[in-house]
Amino acid sequence: MLKKYIDVAAGRVKADIVLKNAAFLNTFTGKVEEGDIAIAGDRIAGIGSYDGVMEYDMSGLVVLPGFIDGHVHIESSMLTPEPFAELVVPRGTTTVIADPHEITNVCGMAGFEYMVKAADNTPLEVHFQLPSCVPATPFENSGATLAAKDIGAHICRSQVFGLGEFMNYPGVINCDDEAIKKLEAAHGFGKIVDGHAPCVTGSRLNAYICGGIATDHECSSPQELQHKADRGMYVMLRHSSSGQDFASNCAAVNAGNMRRFCICTDDRHAADLKYKGHIDDALRAAVSAGVDPVWAVTMATLNTAECYDLRWRGAIAPYRFADLAVVDNLKDFNVKYVFKDGVLVAEGGKQLFNVHHNRYIPGHITDTVHIRDLTADDFKLQLNGARARAIVPRPGTLITDCEVVDVNTAGGDVILHDDLLKLAVVERHKNTGNIGRGLLKGYGFKGGAMGITVAHDSHNIILLGDDNAAMAMAANTLKETGGGMVLVDSATGEVDHMILEVGGLMSARDADYVIEESDRLYKKAHSMGVKQGFAPFMTLAFLSLAVIPHLKLLDTGLFDVDKFAFTDIKAD
Question: In a 3-state reduction of DSSP, which class is residue 304?
């Protein structure tokens, strides 16, 4: 193809495609330039005046490089890779850096390999990171374990792009032997290592970066973003469904540091992808928050390409891959055309590709919920004392607080009051019988139970409720259906659920099913009292994430993230 690129660039041969009368953003210089964009095969051959076999008039539009999501868990959309691509590609996303640690925590490397094969059915370019922390901490039970020797065996594979977010930041900082061996394995094969270091600053951040860790997406304030950028990290502005700090964190971006920032979504629900958008929505939010639109686009394209050494991507220039998102303007970012490797793959918000005829779902990634039948007595919570620690979720963030509350018990069980609920994490991979029990305050739910098999990152069953029998019924329903979301109404006895049979994380059906069913369950959960500041099931799913401060619940007990150790629910 090299001769063809040169011949088209020189004007000796017609281009395959020419975008005529184009205004385009030059992410190298920050200028909006004008000229025809000539495409030969999968590359941009030239910019100037060209004729093509196929021509598109770009008058009144702006051509941008295809958007790159710097860090995403596809599983968190509850969609398999094929319908995920159907939602994000028409939004202008042509490449994602994906960390499949959700399915890998459930199914091990078989889950990783499934995601790679499924993504190959789509035009979306997916670079898969090998999950670094399976499980996320050594204190909980997941469906698989990737020890340092496993990382060493797999990191060299061509399907592995890099090492996924290193969530065990205390292990890195304190030179845990397993953590160091994992990092050394990645560096030995020249693979990038992604970071995850919430609230880590100062000398502890220096130590973490000295693990050879390049990125971070867990910043809770503009000051933290600035500090990490100052220390040379690529810092991700996260536009997720669960965290709501994107706009405030945009305040960290300025002319001096904007080349150190990327944009990612991390966890984005199917409904948000369909109705709000993907990276295009992040660009709108960034501009609305005061970020220069040229900077915003650069962060979503060239910066990410350079961060991950995605050669010949992230810009519009000769020999660059023809990954292009054509938008109406640099404020609204409504995507009109999407080209991937020189092929028109979406137009007018609709995909021009079909992934359903060969959708791939092997049997070994289903049937992943293994628990005994549970009863109401399994959810009794005996407290030996008058005061207890309760988890308090913060709206719009993954951080939780700890509050000491007054409690009473009767009949070997806690008496719930003052917006208190029971929280339980049921181990569901190996049928160990483990049930972590705790208290949750401030969620608002009343009159039954709700549960989900998405519980970051080990993905055990997580339940909350004010009725032991309803909690048992919710858990048993998840066992029978093979995973998903469930809501039990104690007053009516009604059990409402949505099936997520692929690893207990994703649906085998299309996006519309996931959107409609989850919306129905969300509305019902809100009608049962869940406060509007919370995404009913997804907020619940993060209450077991033992690498986000401050207090979390594991299948093995209550966990103090700051001390990185278990803590007693009793507070006396």
Answer: helix
Structure tokens at 495: 């059990």
pTM of the model: 0.94
pLDDT band with cut points at 50, 70 and 90 for residue 451: very high
Give the Cα separation of 464 and 437 in Å (integer). Answer: 10
3-state class (DSSP) for residue 401: strand
Q: Which residues contact 246 (CB under 8 A, 6 or more apart)?
A: 237, 238, 239, 240, 282, 285, 286, 289
Q: Kindly state the tokens that stand for 455.
A: 């519980």
CB neighbour list of residue 493: distance below 8 Å, 6 or more residues apart: none
Q: Where are the domains of the chain?
A: 65-314, 366-566
Residue 394 CB-density burial (10 A; 0-12 exposed, 13-18 middle, 19+ buried): middle
pLDDT in the model for residue 357: 64
The encoded tokens of residue 491 equal 């007053």
Phi then psi for residue 209, to 5 deg, are -65, -30
- CATH code for the part of the protein at 65-314: 3.20.20.140
Residue 483 has pLDDT above 70, yes or no: yes
Q: Which pLDDT score, from 0 to 100, does residue 45 have?
A: 98
Query: Distance from CA of residue 69 to its chain's centroid?
Result: 10
CB atoms closer than 10 angstroms to residue 285 = 20
pLDDT at residue 237 tops 80? yes
**CA dist list (Å): 87 to 269, 495, 505:** 11, 30, 18
Q: Which of 69, 21, 509 is nearest to 281 (CA)?
A: 69
pLDDT tens digits along 49-86:
999 999 999 999 999 999 999 999 999 999 999 999 99
Contact criterion met (CB below 8 Å) for 17 and 53: yes
- Reference 451, options 504, 488, 480; nearest CA is 488
The label of the residue with tokens 């966990």 reads 559
* Pairing mode of beta strands 400-406, 387-393: antiparallel
Single-letter amino acid code for the residue at 513: Y
Q: Is the model's pLDDT at 244 over the cut of 90?
A: no
Cβ atoms of 325 and 37 closer than 8 Å: no
Distances from the Cα of 38 to the Cα of 25, 319, 322, 548, angstroms = 15, 11, 9, 47
- CA distances, 432 to each of 114, 370, 428 (Å): 26, 9, 8
Pair type for strands 495-499 and 557-560: unpaired
Q: How confident is the model at residue 242 (pLDDT cuts 50, 70, 90)?
A: confident
CA distance 419 to 542: 19
Sign of the Cα torsion 449, 474, 518, 543 reads positive
Q: What is the pLDDT of residues 82-94, one digit of tens each?
A: 999 999 999 999 9
Interval 396-421 mean pLDDT: 92
Kindly list the distances between the CA atom of residue 257 and the CA atoms of 31, 209, 239, 247, 303, in Å, as whole numbers in the listed order.
Answer: 18, 18, 19, 17, 11
Q: What is the DSSP letter of 483?
A: S
Predicted pLDDT at 331: 98
Residues whose CB is less than 8 angstroms from the CB of residue 175 and which lie 6 or more positions away in sequence, other chains included: none
Q: Determine the Cα–Cα distance for residues 260 and 225; give it in Å rounded to an integer.
A: 10
Q: What is the pLDDT of residues 114-144, one digit of tens each?
A: 999 999 999 999 999 999 999 988 899 999 9
Burial class (CB in 10 A: 0-12, 13-18, 19+), 309: exposed
